[in-house]
Amino acid sequence: MSVGTSSAPGAARPAGDLAELGIDPDDLPDGLVVADEQGHVVCFNAAAARITAVRAEEALGQRLEKALPLEDLEGRRWWQLTDPYGGLAIRIGQPERNLLLPGGREVLVSVRYVRTEPTGPVRRVVVSLRDTEARRRTERSHAELIATVAHELRSPLTSVKGFTATLLAKWERFTDDQKRLMLETVDADADRVTRLIAELLDISRIDSGRLEVRRQPVDIGAAVGRHIQAYVAAGQPADRFLLRLEQPLPALWADPDKVDQVLSNLLENAVRHGEGTVTIDVTPSASPREGEDAGTSVTVSDEGAGIPEESMNRVFTRFWRGSKRGGTGLGLYIVKGIVEAHGGTITVGRAPGGGAEFRFTLPVGAPAYLS
Predict the structure, then answer these.
(1) Read out DSSP for 90-140?
(2) Model confidence pLDDT, tens digit, residues 274-296
(3) Which terminus of the chain is more solvent-facing, meaning fewer CB atoms within 10 Å of its CB: N or C?
């Protein structure tokens, strides 16, 4: 089945017969419908059948306008409107646009007219179909992200504005202790805004595949220890944390800042949402080949209520917050992106004590000049 155009002698050969190129139309992610020079459908791939809910065997051999009845958003019959076989001889196709299938379902449609000569008759009409649901999910996700960010920014910025305006207007009326308290609040809220901006940048880089990993030697045990010490210094009881290191651990090359970000998020979840002892196990991960270390695994578990079974598959998605509200719900999504950028994996399950258990594994990796 040819879907290309002829080329002048010496020109690069266009993509012609899909079979010659070893491509099965059913393997294409988008719907593909091809009509011959008589307007009869000669190709109707699996994606087209899924999008239109029309079986390929029913569409093949039918007139294009009958097999794929499309209307524009004003209800006009699109094939009569565009007239691919009888329209302008210089026309090469139709740009992508939203059209309606029977029943009112929207699809994105683009069309290519294939001619053997620049102004010759149309030999093939090649139609590409894309389901709009994926685009709508993306648009909804972006809208939700904007709404979440706006909500999270409003509170600290209102606080910063209120305290600074009050201090500027009534500086002499406050004692030094009162001034210090208000400035400490402003400082904390500024940190909160900075963290939110950092989260947004991380999401942008993760979604676009541009999250950079700057590998250095990382002592994962020492990194966990620093986080525990910070919690104890902030008032958490020391006996709430149990760190278990299995030695020897393989040399780990990873991005220390991003490893800290992962540890910070998982420990914060365990402390804030869990109960009882927070246990951190650091172990060498098993290797497919005997005698070799594949990397290092870190398991963070608590003794709280845990995560409901029906929510397990949504934990690492955007905006998941569990039963307790608060925060942006972006932290675990970013954690997963960081771990996977290192070539690692992360899972969630139920801890032996009944709480939540997060386990991530980072491969040994390589020095920066080798990665």
Answers:
(1) T--EEEEEEEE-TTS-EEEEEEEEEESSTTS-EEEEEEEEEESHHHHHHHH
(2) 888 999 999 998 654 444 447 89
(3) C
Q: Residue 126 is encoded by which pair of tokens?
A: 């090649």
Instruction: Please state, in angstroms and rounded to a whole number, the distance separating the CA atoms of residues 247 and 232.
Output: 25
* Rounded-to-integer distance, Cα 228 and Cα 233, Å: 9
The answer to whether 29 and 47 are in contact (CB under 8 A) is yes
Q: Which residues pair with 314 in a beta bridge?
A: none
How many other CB atoms are there within 10 angstroms of residue 110's CB atom?
15
**Percent of the chain clearing pLDDT 90 (strictly above):** 50
Query: Structural domains in the chain?
Result: 25-131 (3.30.450.20), 135-207 (1.10.287.130), 216-363 (3.30.565.10)
On whether the CB atoms of residues 282 and 296 are closer than 8 A, the answer is yes
Number of residues that make up the chain: 371
Q: What is the mean pLDDT of residues 299-315?
A: 85
CA-to-CA separations, 279 to 242, 249, 274, in angstroms, rounded:
5, 18, 11
Whole-prediction pTM value?
A: 0.59
Rounded (5°) CA angle 11-122-36: 105
Q: What does the DSSP 8-state code read for residue 21?
A: T
Q: Alpha-carbon distance 161 to 138, whole Å?
A: 34
Report the C-alpha gap between 340 and 358 in whole angstroms.
15
